[in-house]
Specification:
Blueprint (H helix, E strand, L loop, with lengths): L1 E9 L4 H12 L3 H12 L4 E2 L4 E2 H14 L1 E6 L70 E3 L3 H17 L5 H14 L1 E3 L2 E5 L3 H29 L1 H32 L1 E3 L2 E5 L3 H17 L5 H14 L1 E3 L2 E2 L1 E2 L3 H28 L5 H10 L1 H21 L1 E3 L2 E5 L3 H17 L5 H15 E5 L16 H8 L9
Antiparallel strand pairs: 1-2, 1-3, 1-4, 5-6, 6-7, 7-8, 8-9, 9-10, 10-11, 12-13, 13-14, 14-15
């Protein structure tokens, strides 16, 4: 049974934020959503132009009420002022990029509700991924992954961040970090719709303060041990605390990743991470112990188990991603990397025996040269792992495909390195944009991804883990 939603008034405080969320939810341009919101605030009503199911309407109603709208549901379409002459809502064609919630010169037409509310009605398949369509297959739609940011846009944000961080003695860092993250995320799109970031600098600042307070108490306790039992006891306590923090890093990573995903949304539905801290702790402890006692042979299995933990516990709305990799699949490539490392390290040592009379300077040059194939081999190994991990990641019937080659990835990293070095770091924003665009250009979805059953399931999360991750300068971006 279908019904219609009517927005009759707005009682929230932040109209700009509400307009952005309305634009994201109904896939319309910000100017259009802003116009609708202004009319609603003046007493006019706006109704969804198409009927949706009762279950989907309940999700939409709760979300809209949380934003600040007065929402009513009705079983049939009524005569409601659609703000004619100012805004016209039209159905969106599958490949139309109108109504993305963008500013600038985008088409001003609005789209219909995203897939978390009414059903998408179609299975979805991206172009150019080698998939074929059989006569009996369900219909498909393109699911492109895109990135629209520019080096100049990010440079302006980062330049202001650097200046304000210096002027505020570092306090503005958290707001600056949030602005960079929001820009990068909201310039990323999937199936024509952009992501949205809900995090705030205040959350990061609060999380960092709490973690800093805990760390201060921890250090005061170590100092107290030293004052009571002497400097040797203090040194032992410091060493022990270092190992304790190292052990607890997976716990911090879970908190940071949970916060980051909980503040990320697409088509009005948020992502979340539901992995347990104790599961991460045991996974990493067991992984390092087994790797040590197997002389490194367990590392491929540990790598796959880590990916399974992070990816399979990531959710979009009510559905989780899945990962079905196996350690044995990457064991052979791992052993080849070990062999390459042994050969490269052994060659300079054996060179005096192979070439009697070689000078010390020549040996030094030879030792430096052998690092070149080792670094190149490592870069190829990393991109191989990326391809493998994405190929084993699925969501709602679709499988991710990452088709970057080792040469392409090496050239990206090499040119980014040259840009940063020769501009004394000023090209860092451009290098960041190039890396994001590279990922978007080479990442796609294969198969029929069905999003019609995805509904919102909000998860609570604090920024404490993010503050702790900042304290240790940790990178927890695992590619999701």
């Amino acid at each position: 049974m279908s019904c219609f939603l009517t927005l009759s008034s707005f009682v929230g405080e932040d109209q700009d934020a509400a307009a952005k969320k309305l634009a994201l939810m109904f896939r319309m341009a910000p100017q259009q959503a802003s116009t609708i919101l202004k009319k609603i605030s003046k007493g006019q009503a706006w109704q969804t132009p198409q009927g949706i199911s009762d279950k989907q309407a309940a999700v939409a109603e709760n979300y809209l009420k949380a934003i600040g709208f007065q929402v009513e549901r009705s079983g049939q379409q009524e005569f409601v002022d659609q703000i004619a002459g100012t805004v016209t809502l039209e159905d969106e064609s599958p490949n139309d990029e109108a109504g993305l919630g963008l500013s600038g010169n985008e088409d001003e037409r609005g789209g219909w509700l995203p897939s978390q509310l009414p059903s998408t009605g179609n299975d979805l398949r991206p172009p150019g991924n080698g998939g074929t369509t059989n006569p009996g297959d369900p219909p498909s739609r393109d699911m492109p992954i895109g990135f629209h940011g520019t080096g100049g846009g990010l440079f302006k944000i980062m330049l202001i961040n650097w200046i304000l961080t210096l002027l505020t003695l570092g306090i503005y860092y958290f707001w600056g970090k949030t602005k960079v993250r929001r820009y990068l995320l909201e310039q990323s799109s999937f199936a024509g719709d952009r992501f949205y970031y809900h995090g705030t600098g205040g959350e990061l600042f609060k999380g960092a303060l709490i973690f800093g307070f805990i760390l201060t108490l921890f250090n005061l306790g170590i100092m107290a041990i030293g004052s009571v039992w002497g400097p040797q006891a203090e040194m032992i306590a410091q060493i022990g605390s270092s190992y304790l923090i190292l052990i607890l890093l997976p716990v911090i990573m879970v908190g940071a990743f949970r916060y980051r995903l909980s503040r990320t949304a697409w088509r009005g539905i948020r992502l979340s991470f539901r992995g347990k801290r104790k599961s991460a702790l045991w996974l990493y402890i067991k992984g390092y112990i087994f790797t040590f006692f197997t002389l490194g042979m367990y590392w491929p299995y540990f790598t796959v188990r880590k990916q399974k933990f992070w990816r399979s516990n990531a959710y979009f709305g009510s559905q989780s991603f899945s990962y079905d990799g196996e350690g044995k699949d990457i064991l052979k490539v791992f052993l080849l990397m070990i062999l390459l490392y042994v050969v490269c390290m052994a060659l300079p040592v054996a060179l005096p025996l192979l070439v009697p009379g070689i000078s010390k300077e020549q040996s030094t040059i030879a030792f430096a040269v052998v690092w070149i194939p080792l670094i190149i081999g490592f870069l190829y190994y990393v991109v191989y792992l990326d391809r493998y991990h994405w190929s084993k990641t699925q969501f709602a019937g679709g499988t991710f495909n990452y088709d970057a080659t080792g040469r392409q990835w090496f050239m990206l990293k090499f040119t980014n390195f040259l840009l940063i070095v020769f501009t004394v770091g000023l090209a860092l924003p451009l290098a960041t944009i190039r890396s994001r665009r590279f990922l978007a250009d080479h990442l796609s979805v294969v198969g029929n991804m069905q999003l019609s059953q995805v509904v919102q399931e909000a998860q609570k999360s604090s920024a404490l883990g993010e503050g702790a991750a900042d304290g240790f300068d940790m990178d927890i971006d695992i590619g999701l």
